[in-house]
Amino acid sequence: MTLKLSHLIRRFAGTAGLDDVSLDIAPGEFLALLGPSGSGKTTLLRILAGLDYPDGGSVMQGDRDLLKINARQRSVGLVFQHYALFRHMTVADNVAFGLRVRPARSRPSRTQIAERVEALLKRVHLEGYGKRYPAQLSGGQRQRVALARALAVEPELLLLDEPFGALDAQVRVSLRRWLRHLHEELGLTTVFVTHDQEEALELADRVAVMNNGRIEQVDTPEMIYQQPATPFVCEFIGKVNRLTVERRGGQLVSGSATLCDDPWDGRYERALAYVRPEQLALSAHGQGDSWEARLRHIYPAGSVTHLELQWEEPDQVLEMDIASEQIARLSLRQDMTLRVRPKVCTLFPLDVDGHVQASDRVMLRWDV
To answer: Is residue 223 very low, low, confident or very high in pLDDT (cuts 50, 70, 90)?
Structure first.
């Protein structure tokens, strides 16, 4: 059944941890809660787990009011960033812990527990590790033990609180892909908290981007990246160039380039334009539809090369990504002058007080 969060409010000493958060989580969905520290994502996860309670709002699963059910009865598995394994227990005892502390009427037999533990260790690729202790494992192995322990109680909802945050980059990539395969195999509803945008975009079916206790946008990873709903999402997800835009004679102009006819029929005099580095292209056209820029630095990065451009505005730098094979073909070198233009641009108008009007966002695309 769909998990329905409605108008959740949580305050800490007058500060809004959650500020009117509403969200539906579909059965079997892998949802990422993404945002900077203090955005409210862990507070939301703790409320789902039954470790915290909101000051207002509801959490419903069909006819069940989860806020009236204690943590043990919610059928939730929870995995923390720092494993939280019992150091004095073996791997097998750690995995079995949630089963052994159940009330007698619902506790499996010793044989059933042993069989389930063995099956789970096999599922997380730790066969033969049952008699070891956490100190004898690597960080990635300990995190898999923590996940097996969460799965042992057969949860309906799996909650992951930055589970890979303490691991090195290579292990993180390996484990998150393994986790995605495991999620698909088990068909669990999974909520994953992270501040790592690459992790969220790679793993999740949908991403909820949070900021200051509110959800800025909920959508598929592709839509979050390609069609951000607010300036915060533009700037938080990936790299982006921010440009100022003004209306001149019925057209929108940024620097020396005319972007388009005014889409707002004169309602706004200014706007912000966001262009990602890969959304810039070199232009052979004249001044009217492109910017002049000086190539300050060339940063090779495998198949992609990052260019740092000194734009027309004295204090502004543009970042541009191109295929590395183009560097030699175009004879690009430091300090040469280029003309660049956007292929895609996200525009947010500003009202007379300088406030962003996100509901009037416009996406522009050009054939380059």
So the answer is: very high
- pLDDT bucket at 367, cuts 50 / 70 / 90: confident
Taking the C-alpha atoms of residue 95 and residue 133, their distance in angstroms, rounded to an integer, is: 12
Residue-wise pLDDT for 1-14, tens only, equals 899 999 999 999 87
pLDDT at 57: 97
Q: Indicate the helix (H) or strand (E) that contains 13.
A: none
Is residue 260 a contact partner of residue 249, using CB atoms and an 8 Å limit? no
Write down the mean pLDDT value for the chain.
Answer: 91
With contact defined as beta carbons under 8 Å apart, do 23 and 5 qualify?
A: yes
Q: What are the Cα distances from residue 365, in Å, to 162, 185, 230?
A: 36, 39, 18
Per-residue model confidence (pLDDT) at position 284? 67
| pLDDT single digits (tens) 124-160 | 889 999 999 999 998 888 888 988 898 888 888 999 9
Left, alpha or beta for 50 (phi > 0: left; psi -120 to 50: alpha)?
left
> Would you say residue 95 has pLDDT above 90?
yes
Question: What is the DSSP-derived secondary structure letter of residue 106?
Answer: G
Q: Tokens at residue 200, please?
A: 């969220």
Looking at the DSSP bridge assignments, the partners of residue 339 are: 292
Coil, strand or helix at 190: strand
Residue range 161-166: mean pLDDT, rounded: 79
Range 233-250 average pLDDT: 94
Q: Which pTM was predicted? A: 0.88
What's the first-to-final CA gap in the chain, in angstroms? 47
What sign results for the dihedral spanned by CA atoms 40, 42, 45, 51? negative
